[in-house]
Fold Tail protein X.
Amino acid sequence: MKVRSRDRDNLGEIAWIKLGRDDDETEQLIYELNPHLHLYGRVLPLGVVIELPELTKTTHTEADQQVTVWS
């Protein structure tokens, strides 16, 4: 899926809104698909085209497997 950034978006916001998750592994997948994103820094300008990974319910990352003291 391709999306365009809004002015002053950051990758975490886009991942959360479009994919329903914002973790390091998801962001890493996005950077792998979009090597040009490092040119913009943390805050994206208006209109940057970003290819998002196809995450399914069976896509697992390290963040899915973390255990906390309270679990």
